[in-house]
Amino acid sequence: MCGIVGYIGSKKVSPILIQGLTRLEYRGYDSAGIAVIEGNKIEVKKDKGRVNNLYSLDGIDDLKGTIGIAHTRWATHGKPSKENSHPHMDNDKIFAVVHNGIIENYNELREKLIEKGYEFISQTDTEVIPNLINYYYKEDNEKDNLKLLRAVKNTCMDLKGSFALEIISIREPDNMIVVRKDSPLVIGKGNGENYIASDIPAILSYTKDFYFLNDYEFAYLSRDNVKFYDTNLNEIKKITKSIEWDSKGAEKAGYEHFMLKEIYEQPKAIRETIGTRLNNSKICFDELNFTKEYLESVNKIYIVACGTAMHAGLVAKNMFEKLCKIQTEVDIASEFRYRDPLIDNKTLAIFISQSGETADTIAALKLAKSKGAKTIAISNVIGSSITREADNTIYTHAGPEIAVASTKAYTAQITILSLIALYCADILRRADIIKIEEIKQDLLKLPAKASKVLKNVEEIKKFAKRVYKEKDMFFLGRGVDYSASLEGSLKLKEISYIHSEGYASGELKHGPIALIDTGITVIATITDKALVEKSISNVQEVITRGAKILLITNQNLENKGFETIINIPEVATELSPVLSIIPLQLLAYYISKEKGLDVDKPRNLAKSVTVE
Ligand code: M6R
């Protein structure tokens, strides 16, 4: 959470910083601020509220400096206020710092600094950082040119928790230092200038060449150069990676919201995620290079993730069990990491994270690795933290996902997981070959079929208009339709603030059916041919109790009292959530829009959850 941006070059920095923050606002949006080196002073402009408020702050237009740092906040310590906004400075106003992450031992550090005479004006954990830098800088009697770097390094060694930091100082007005530990930060290399941001899309319009830092690597930037140091302050070499994303991917391109654009980008995201991996029925994963002997030794697969990514994992479980005959468990990362899961070197553990920065998922991966599991990370972001921890990384190619509500990442995740399951199934040969080939062929048809589903938008809009004032809704399904229902329910909750529950249809009469009353909206998904009769019976049970039904189906069903039916194309059941989720995403979107809510930046949420 929280977004940081930085620039060092010869252009006026304040517009670059504010524009960068606007692109990062999905990471946090309760306060924003910038710090710019102006001659022999650091000017800080900050306040609570959205990034746009910065334009109206006194004196912001007068800033002429060409080196600066910026921050958009998702409050953890201290409520949103001007004092708690970043950047923070030390007592002598020599250093300015922006921070993304949490300093767990800030109380202890604060007490120590207070004993030494330092004063604090905010309630944040961050304010200890500029003051510690101040302390170490003053203590240092060396005369070399690494004094600032040493003070930053010593400070970082005292910090417990997570941090991505940018530091500027009037002692070195032509430099900037950045460092990270467990929080994201990338450096974009320009010509006579360098950019820093929490993620790639924020600065993609300036450069496509990026440096990625590992934990505790310090980057010492000037306009023309970036030097890297380890914790012993020995210089280390790094090379840039070129990113192929189009900067337009991070713009709305005429859509009213990023979420809508990203829903419509799903056919492309699925197509590009399949890429050249599936050719004439042969599936290629050179990164994995699994042998039959290795796969036969695997006795358990764990799929671990959070939120939407975890829901994609639920869809994949079905495939790994059916096609590979390997017991597969799906777990929420924050639970998995603390429940002492049974893992050994026969475990294959797959971790899914769109951003690649989710703290719980990364911690879960580290745990599985330490217990001997082979680990695979599935991420959408090149060079993200999770990709540096896993034994193998497989990328989805959904392009930048900006809206807080995840849409195209989910369908791309199911696509890549299906490919992995089919790849393993081909090697293991434990399942019916005809079935495996059928799923492969259907995978290739998904992009065209997803485009077809998107054509149902008018009916969904109408339904959204009828139900947007409701307080509760239920999503029902069996098997893979249950997985899609959980995801549909999450989408509705997070952007429309309507309470909703996803239930396994057959479980309804074991309690939840007591909640069904006249007029309540139930969204039922029925795509599994083998379960149609049973699913219909469950829906009839709620109709009898007065529910109004939106039915998403790929079966030719007679209308037995459903309010609206959305027909979607048929596809192998294993893959059907890729299509059935699209109407549910659109429904959540149009309900949120009808309610006049901030679709892309729902309250209390941030795109990547880098704290526990
Ligand atoms: O970046 P990740 O895939 O690790 O994020 C996981 C969840 O935080 C994320 O999917 C979240 O649930 C979305 N807001 C759902 O739309």
Describe the structure.
The protein is of the alpha/beta class and 612 residues long. It has 3 domains: 246 residues, Aminohydrolase, N-terminal nucleophile (Ntn) domain (Glutamine Phosphoribosylpyrophosphate, subunit 1, domain 1, 4-Layer Sandwich), CATH 3.60.20.10; 202 residues, Glucose-6-phosphate isomerase like protein, domain 1 (Rossmann fold, 3-Layer(aba) Sandwich), CATH 3.40.50; 137 residues, Rossmann fold (3-Layer(aba) Sandwich). Helices cover 34% and strands 23% of the residues. The strands form 5 sheets. It has an 8-stranded antiparallel beta sheet, covered by helices on one side. Strand 16 and strand 17 form a beta hairpin. The longest helix is centred in the last third of the chain and has 21 residues. The chain is globular and about 80 Å long. 5-amino-5-deoxy-1-O-phosphono-D-mannitol binds next to helix 8 and helix 15.
What is shown here, in short?
The relative contact order is 0.09. By secondary structure, the protein is of the alpha/beta class.
Attribute tags:
about 600 residues, alpha/beta, Glutamine Phosphoribosylpyrophosphate, subunit 1, domain 1, Rossmann fold, 3 domains, eight-stranded antiparallel β-sheet, seven-stranded antiparallel β-sheet, 17 helices, binds 5-amino-5-deoxy-1-O-phosphono-D-mannitol
Mean of residue pLDDT?
A: 94
**Poorly predicted regions:** none
CATH-defined fold name of the largest domain: Glutamine Phosphoribosylpyrophosphate, subunit 1, domain 1
Strand order of the largest sheet: 3-2-4-1-10-9-11-15
- CATH class annotation of the largest domain: Alpha Beta
What is the helix fraction of residues, given as a range? 25-40%
* Backbone CA Rg: 26 Å
Beta-strand segment tally? 27
Gross morphology is: globular
CATH homology superfamily of the largest domain: Aminohydrolase, N-terminal nucleophile (Ntn) domain
Q: Please, how many helices?
A: 17
Q: What is the number of domains?
A: 3
- Spell out which ligands are present: 5-amino-5-deoxy-1-O-phosphono-D-mannitol
Tell me the span between the first and last alpha carbons: 11 Å
How much strand? 15-25%
| Helix-and-strand structural type | alpha/beta
CATH architecture of the largest domain: 4-Layer Sandwich
Note the main sheet.
Answer: 8 strands, antiparallel
